[in-house]
Amino acid sequence: MKADLKTDWTVRDICEGFMYDRALDKGLYGLNGKLTIQPEYQRNYIYDSNGKDVKVIESLLKGYPLGLIYFVKTGEDKYEVLDGQQRITSIGRFVKTTYPFSVPDIDGNPRYFDSLHEEEQEKILNTELTIYVCEGTAQEIDEWFKIINIAGVELNEQERLNASYYGPFTTLARKEYSNTNNANMEKWRTYIKGDPKRQEILHCALDWVSNHDIAGYMSEHRNDNNITDLKNHFDSVIDWINSLFDYTDKEVKGLPWGDYYRKYHNNAYDRVKLNNDVLKLMGDPYVHDKKNIFEYLLSGSNRTELLDVRYFDDNVKRTKYTQQTEQAKIKGISNCPYCAIGNDNNKAKIWKFEEMDADHVTAWSKGGSTDIDNCQMLCQTHNRAKGNK
Ligand SMILES: [Zn+2]
Q1: Contacts of 166 (CB under 8 A, 6+ apart)
Q2: Would the pTM of this model clear 0.90, i.e. be above it?
């Protein structure tokens, strides 16, 4: 990684030939066409929604430093903004008045660039920016992104990866999965957590197709002129979910559907039964981990531990403990019914409440109810032994 410090590029230079296409939300250029301000890996422009664009202009007017800006050198006298896109876009929009915004004066009146005093305009235009121009491999740029802190929001993992593996594949993949106007976006976001503008839908699509090796996949496909493989795999997963489950409430969002698909998509399921079971388990107050219901059902409805079933509450356990212990003392046997029928030293042992656990006489997974009649207290050894069967 090579980084040259440049301090002689002014706002005037950077804004030369500034272009901003709001409709496409991309394609910003500066430095007389030599600088791509919004390359495909950068997030979309979000400064105008949180007032940071105004802060940038106020900083320039007051002579405050804007912080470091990073460019990556992509060719002979060609650059892309690695970090600083939001700041440069704010400046370009203000100065070139393509999509003008105003900054308030002391009295709160709006001031546009055109309405500033000439000295103020010159002050802004002559401000020299502090820019590092970097050259390096994809890995080096990724490392760089991990280290630098952005004045604003830190780049997330996928934004860094898009930066490191910029090229035709990333451009096409972003067009498909980072575009909020995509007609399928709402359907996808039922199952995938995150913001397409922050590259989180793309991140998930790549995670699924690569089986968690996103960097490896992006590296391999970097120069592809299509995203067929990515798209086919993604569509297969989504179609598979839709072919099985009707349920679309919040519990399905963010589940590792890519892993489920890999493990279970060759299995046959009874769709009607599957959906009845989902509703039954969603409504079961003893099923604590609702998100795991899908994997529980897909994996054959026997890994009860996935559901974190909370069987009996403390009152039920105490009542049962008292009943069992009173009976056991009368008979001179252990209050653990399994110990009582054994032949060792614990045959007549009275366990303390803390030393016992509640057990379903008829297992929950076999339809046993969770009321006191189906509850028995066992010593921990016997409860564990029974649970392992
Ligand atoms: Zn026992």
Answers
A1: 39, 40, 41, 80
A2: no
How far, in Å, from the CA of 310 to the mean position of ligand 1? Answer: 21
Cα dist from 196 to 202, 298, 349, 379, whole Å: 7, 28, 62, 52
SS3 call for 27 = strand
- How far, in Å, from the CA of 340 to the mean position of ligand 1? 7
CA 328–ligand 1 middle distance (angstroms):
13
CA distance 60 to 83: 18
Side-chain-side CA neighbours of residue 250 (13 Å) = 0
Helix axis angle for 157-164 and 138-147, nearest 10°, is: 150
**If you average pLDDT over every residue of the chain, what do you get?**
87
Contact predicate 311/361, CB 8 Å: no
Per-residue confidence (pLDDT) for residue 50, from 0 to 100:
66
285 CA distance to ligand 1 centroid (A)?
29
* Alpha carbon of 17 to ligand 1 centroid (Å): 83
Distance 379 CA to ligand 1 centre (A): 4
- Quick: pLDDT tens for 152-208: 456 788 988 887 787 889 989 998 998 888 899 999 999 999 999 889 999 999 999
Confidence class for position 212, pLDDT limits 50, 70, 90: very high
Query: Degrees (nearest 5) of the Cα angle 297, 299, 305?
Result: 80
